[in-house]
User: Fold this.
Amino acid sequence: MRGLILILIWTVLALPAALVVFPWTLITRDTRLLFRVGFWITRAGLPLVGVRVVVKGFERFPRGASIVMANHSSNLDPDVLLPLLPGRVVIYLKASLMKIPVLGYAMRLAGFIPVQRDGSVESAKAASELAKRALEQGSCLVLFPEGTRSRDGSLLPFKRGPFFLAMESGAPVAPVSIRGAIRLLPKGSKNLKAGTVTVTFHTPLHPADYSDKEDLMKAVRSAIESGMSD
Assistant:
């Protein structure tokens, strides 16, 4: 029931906001208002359904272009993480989400990066080029290196693509641990529960300090795991 109530709250807030925000964004080509309003709506709905977000270590978060890498075990993860991030935020997401009415249009306007699940080299290259462009513009790029949600909350093997991107761009990597979301909304469930989600920001890692992507991957994994334990 909480999940349906949350969707209803977001819809009630988003529809009138869209009447102002979408035209403004199209006319000005400035996405800042779109981000501020969208993230405010996301953040505002959570406490109304009993979801409390506790933030730790945000003072460590780097300013300017960065790559945020977080663990992923729940559809709740983006909702608790994205509204916390400063500036322009760009996220990798399933291409199918772009088809959702209103929300999908907003994500296209925001420049979110659709990821095709066909595994083709062309799709991967296209997504990588969009990501590089976003970083060059000073954006905060958010991705979940596991590539999918974990069913039991344990950290799955990482995809290598994000680490190629990090080494090529040189942008600092901000590891983030999200703890508690799986208890509130596990994979495969639509039954949202009340409770607390803790988001921990770790010390940024600079790709230039690592000999190759494998070493960087190990460091990111270690940082994320350190904040996942109760």
User: Anything to note?
Assistant: The helical segments are 2-28, 32-48, 77-81, 103-110, 121-136, 161-169, 181-184, 213-226. The mean pLDDT is 89.
